[in-house]
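Protein in question quoted in full.
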Amino acid sequence: MKKWKQVLLAFAVMTGVGATALPATGVSAINVFKQCGANSGSDVCQAEGTDDATKMIKTVINTMLFILGTIAVIMIIVGGIRYTISGGDASGVKSAKDTVLYSVVGLVVALMSYAIVNFVVGRF
């Protein structure tokens, strides 16, 4: 049964990676701004240039990284509590230390990801 879980997880990961790696299909659209003149008062013409995809992408990624960082901090607290209540049991102490270690690594990864994303998005 464990083998099936691994196969299913590998398939899900590969599907996710494949979906993001494949190029998007071509899309054609009508240029609604073609008719906009200097004195055009339509809502479409006034909204020209205010739609910023970079801000939206940055907001979504920063929100996801905030959630990841929050989960890492919660797991550090859980690891500390587990360490405190382990009562000197060697396996409990090791498990708690591993939880704290992996949570700190996750927090560092989240912070570095935040810095990299803001640097890259800021350049474009």
About this structure: The chain has a mean pLDDT of 76.
